[in-house]
Prior knowledge:
alpha+beta; Jelly Rolls; Arc Repressor Mutant, subunit A; 8-stranded antiparallel sheet; 10 helices; 8 strands; 22% strand; globular
Amino acid sequence: MQKSSLEVTDYESGGLKLRLIGPPPDLAPYLSAYYRTEIADGVIVEDWLPPEEGNLRTGRAEVYEAAIGDDPVVRVVPSVISGPTDRVTYLRIGGGKFWGIGLTPAGWVRFIGTPASQMTNRFGDIGGSAELEPLQTMLDQLREDGDDVERAATLINTTFRALLGERPEVDKTVRAVHLDFLSEDASSVAPIASGAGMNPRTFERFCKRHFGFPPRTLLKRQRFLRSLGQYMLDPSMRWIGSLDTHYWDQAHFIRDFRATMGMTPSEFASRPHPIITAAVSVTNAKAGVTMQALYHPARAGDSETGL
Length: 307
């Protein structure tokens, strides 16, 4: 019997089980990971999730509620498309099974196509769009028959490979800019815009269309996530020890934290974080980063993609 080449990273605690599968090299520039989440019957977990890139999600549960920022909490539909966020997402789930697929900015360009700015800090039903019908079909299959992780990963790979087509030139620019924003040395917009061959106004429009937010917001989000991710690796440490080097001082970080998460760092630390803890554990083990929005395609085996 041939041994499976699928690499799965597992985490399990308190009735929550999370399994992470990394994308194959040809899809790594576009997809950050595939997540299988299971919540035991009778168990309800809630969490306050940090900003993310776009995602596709599907699942069925006894309890499945969410809200982004100050929006009201609503029941989540079975097949979800979620745009990039720069604020907290409240999630309350229980007694169910879910699949999630993380999109990179280049993945949003390739597979979703609509301007990312139209979906920032929003999630909704993926149904109703003829262009996204193959993705909806995939999500429906994962929801109804997703217990076999290897078969589910094959379905995801096959679906996205069929949608790759010709690689548009904008993919290359989006990916190059994405890597610049991911750099821990990035502290200002001007060098990134110049490297992309754009003037400030053009670059602002480019970022809003393909990343969902203005470039300054993207830099702010990255420094915040690096700091939060460092803290989540060791919640016993003081916040000051996790701060990104681009913060002026702790007060600067606290202002960013309150604006992003709707609470202070101490309020966040006092709450349970079963979903973030699980995600940080498997993502750090697999991809060497702590948050989905910190995923680095160049470290995920995409050297043969030509991008």
